[in-house]
Amino acid sequence: MRDIILIDLSSIAHPIWHMSGAEPDPNAASQKIVARVRSIATDQPHVAVCCDKGKSFRHDITPTYKANRPESDATLRHQIQLAVEILQADGFPVWAVPGFEADDLIASATVQALNDEETTVAIFSADKDLLQLVGERVRQVSTINGVVYDAAGVREKFGVSPSEMRDYLTLVGDAADNVRGAKGIGAKTAAELLERFGSIDNLYRDMREVGVVSLKFTPSRVTALREFEPLYPQTRELITLRTDVDLPFAQLFDTRTPKDAGTFGMDEDTTMDTKDETMPMPTAPPPMTKFAEQAPAPVETAAPVKAIATRSEVLPAPAEWERGLEPRSMTELITLAKCLFESRLFSAYGTPQAVLSTLLAGRELGMQSMAAMRAIHIIEGKPTLSADLIRGLILRSGKAKYFRCTERSATSATFVTKRIGDPEMSLTYTIEEATAAGLVKEKSGWVKNPADMLVARAGSKLARLAYPDVVHGIYTREEIEEGREVAA
After folding, report:
1. Do residues 341 and 351 lie in contact, with contact meaning Cβ atoms separated by under 8 Å?
2. Range scoring the smallest mean pLDDT among 182-186, 197-201, 309-313, 424-428
3. What are the structural domain ranges in the chain?
4. SS3 at position 16
5. In contact, 142 and 135? CB cutoff 8 Å
6. What percent of the chain is predicted at pLDDT more than 70?
């Protein structure tokens, strides 16, 4: 499957803007907006950023649309424009079409994407209107709290299916856009009506043909619905997403190349001449052994870890060729962090200082710089590692005589280990424990690959229990993300 990411830029920009008022840097908002988009786009090749542009066609339907909003702050518009320029320089497709809102662009792109049966769509927005698009191959990720909405999630949250969201929002209205719904019809009542009748059209048809007495409507509900009947077509038109916006959709599949890509290397046609002879480009070094597969070093031969140098103090050069380019002073480490951040490969970290912190965390664990950047993920401000890598750290430390999985099934997983000088320890994690913790959800990894999830959880738990001095209490990325979902 090919996953497309569609980002509603306004949904990211406005919360950041409101929280950046005390920042001393006047461009802090644009920098945070860019960092957020880069974070979403990490490891995702097909990403488009969608923006509003001018007044939408909905203002022609009624001048009251969004009339409750003050004129957009010129400073905010400037920060958004700065962010757009940086994202365009990053190579992102940034779409804005006069007369349409970002929601319409996202809806149009989603419809085009679904023409390919092998394509899925992830929409990053906090806008409820876009939940109309959610389906088997479309999900929405809230830019406010990270909650992922599939069809089941929409029904659980609002009591209606995604296909009923348009009529749901028509009935309840949208205060943020100054779109008024039926007076006295709240979220619960709207969901009940749509559950019973399926659509607003069916509701009014039955009111006419069956009669309100037979439908057992209260007088207040009858009054509210009859007053709303001549208004609902216009309200629904305001809520309806346009799916016919002309977009350069093919840009999604172009290689995302920063405009200044040549800054960090030569152009393809550039050659270096010495005495009229063309020098060949250096060949890549042989592939490195996966970190988790390295053999554990015996305790007596393991090199002691020296504290990271400060200022101009230089560490002894490592003997192994693969560590020959590792930083040997804090100055070199800071320089490397800046270069890695500016390369945009790791710009999702937000700042060069965050990259530096990750490098330091990796150094503490005895990892090379690039291995640390690939393996350590910062989730909610906490460094995380994969379960395989945590086990690899233990085996490489030389402190474990063995650390192995002795049971693996869809219902339980067991690991046993013997730390040198300590008795054997074992830990079993069961699907019942995962269910009780709220981890087993529809379409989650716990449903699709329960044995793998149990192995990862059992191994990481035993690792922290038996080798706290090796893993330093680090959790796996999945544990942090699952904890956030359960809390949500």
Report:
1. yes
2. 309-313
3. 2-151, 292-375, 379-488
4. helix
5. no
6. 80
pTM of this prediction?
0.60
**Nearest partner of 323 among 376, 368, 372, 363, judged by Cα:** 368
Going by the DSSP 8-state scheme, the letter that residue 453 receives in this structure is H
Instruction: Give rounded-to-5 percent helix, strand, coil for the chain.
Output: 50, 15, 40
Percentage of the chain with pLDDT > 90?
A: 44
Instruction: Write out pLDDT tens, residues 240-295.
Output: 999 999 999 999 999 887 776 554 443 444 333 333 333 333 333 333 333 333 33
Residue 445: what pLDDT? 79
DSSP alpha helices (H): ranges in 343-381?
Answer: 352-364, 369-375
Bridge partners (DSSP) listed for residue 428: 414
Closest CA to 19 of 144, 103, 146, 174: 144
440 and 434 Cβ atoms separated by less than 8 Å: yes
Domain 2-151 belongs in CATH node 3.40.50.1010:
yes
Q: Say how far apart CA 416 and CA 43 lie, in whole Å.
A: 34
| Nearest-angstrom CA–CA distance, 101 and 39 | 23
In angstroms, the CA 247 to CA 108 distance is 8
pLDDT for 138 beyond 60: yes
Q: How far apart are the first and last CA of the chain?
A: 28
Provide the CA 188 distance to its chain's centre, in angstroms: 30
DSSP 8-state symbol, 130: G
User: What is the DSSP-derived secondary structure letter of residue 253?
Assistant: G
pLDDT bracket for residue 321 (50, 70, 90): very low
